Amino acid sequence: MQIDKRSCNRVYVPGFVYYSGNEPQNFSGKYEALIVDLSPGGICINTQHEFEHGSRVRFYITKYYNGIFTGIVRRCVKGSDDKFHVGLEVPFNSGCNFNKYAVIQNKGT
Q1: Residue 65 maps to which CATH number?
Q2: How many domains does the chain have?
């Protein structure tokens, strides 16, 4: 049984992020990942790359936010579709209101 460690609600927001690996991956170029969900404390993405726990990933979300964010990998699990679900800890600032883009709000899931 997997225990949800997030203390904030997750919000499903359709869209993509564009990222590059900082450390230790150092991917050359920019890559696209599907947004799984967002919360005030982080983001989960679905991507072709595997990331080491504790590594840093720089990314931006073109449709919702201005700016570049750096997330710390807290979870990386390979799915049945040969993609990776990557949970990034990112303290989004209070000025980022992604709730207005939400499709479904999930409490504690």
Answers
A1: 2.40.10.220
A2: 1
In a domain, 100, yes or no: no
Q: Which pLDDT does position 84 carry in this prediction?
A: 95
Q: pTM, whole model, 2 decimals?
A: 0.74
Q: Is residue 4 part of a domain?
A: no
- Judge whether 6 and 89 are in contact, CB under 8 Å: no
- As given in the structure block, the two tokens for residue 6 are 């997030």
> Would you say residue 83 has pLDDT above 50?
yes
Residue 57 has pLDDT above 60, yes or no: yes
The radius of gyration of the chain's CA atoms, rounded to the nearest angstrom, is 13
Q: E-assigned strands of the chain? A: 10-12, 16-23, 31-39, 42-47, 56-60, 69-78, 84-89, 104-106
